[in-house]
Design goal:
The structure holds two protein chains of two kinds.
Chain A (H helix, E strand, L loop, with lengths): L1 H12 L2 H5 L3 H7 L3 H30 L8 H23 L1 H7 L3 H5 L2 H10 L2 E2 L2 E2 L3 H31 L10 H15 L7
Antiparallel strand pairs in A: 1-2
Chain B lengths: L2 H28 L9 H4 L12 H4 L1
Classes of the chains: A mainly alpha, B mainly alpha.
């Protein structure tokens, strides 16, 4: 039940794109076709979850015991970048079919600030006590990735219609109407606030 | 642990992480791409993410 509520919260109520405006750049860049959006979504879900696990482990078992927690930001950046390289290498070598479908989106993940934000969120403390235990952390990271994927895919369907719209005023074309649409999505999703 | 020792530990941890990144980057570069994936960069028409290594704008 707790995971269900966490999932609903991360996808509908506290969606990381719509409430914190993180990951807007890949959202605008990759949402021009559905197939790109689906490929990017799968890559984001996997990388967000795995890098949250790695970052949490590094923080709890290395940085905290050595009392160098202040290095978390730069450590997480390096961990995420290294992990993405390893994943790309693994896919190239052992799962070429998956590399073919995800390969082009993997380098984009390193520039996606959602991954870093989730890694920083999962090591948050409240009065010195960690907010998430390991299982909750995995759930939070996974559902945040799913929330990102839902918005990316949803927005790609809207973008396809916007691109094909011949009556669009010139000043609105491209990023202009895309950002207005994201604003409307934010307002629509505000309707879920208070659901849980 | 003294403050000076902690600074050296921090430098050591950072050195390990940087080495890990450099190692993974070099290994990834050396790993051959599977058949049919060699033209990823040329098939990419470019999106708004100009920091991506596949984006044609990066080549300029």
């Amino acid at each position: 039940m707790q995971f269900l509520l966490m999932g609903i919260g991360a996808v509908l109520i506290n969606n990381i794109i719509l409430t914190r405006f993180l990951g807007i750049c890949p959202l605008l860049g990759v949402s021009k076709s559905n197939s790109s959006a689906i490929g990017m979504s799968l890559a984001v879900i996997f990388v967000v979850t795995m890098s949250a696990i790695l970052s949490y482990s590094l923080y709890m078992y290395v940085l905290v015991p050595l009392k160098i927690e202040y290095l978390r930001l730069v450590s997480f950046i390096l961990i995420i970048a290294s992990f993405v390289q390893f994943v790309e290498m693994f896919l190239k070598r052992f799962v070429p079919a998956l590399y073919k479908s995800l390969g082009i989106y993997l380098p984009l993940i390193t520039t996606n600030c959602v991954v870093l934000a989730v890694s920083l969120d999962v090591v948050a403390t409240n009065g010195g006590v960690p907010v998430y235990n390991f299982l909750n952390m995995v759930g939070y990271a996974f559902f945040t990735g799913v929330g990102y994927a839902v918005i990316l895919i949803l927005f790609s369907f809207i973008q396809e219609r916007l691109i094909n719209n011949k009556n669009m005023p010139k000043s609105f074309q491209g990023s202009g109407i895309a950002l207005v649409t994201i604003g409307l999505l934010v307002m629509a999703f505000l309707g879920f606030a208070g659901m849980i | 642990m003294s403050d000076v020792a902690r600074i050296f530990v921090a430098i050591g941890v950072m050195a390990i992480l940087i080495a890990l990144y450099i190692g993974s980057y070099v290994l990834n570069k050396r790993t051959k791409k599977p058949e049919g994936c060699k033209d990823f960069a040329s098939s990419c028409s470019g999106c708004a993410v100009t920091s991506c290594s596949h984006n044609p704008l990066k080549e300029e």
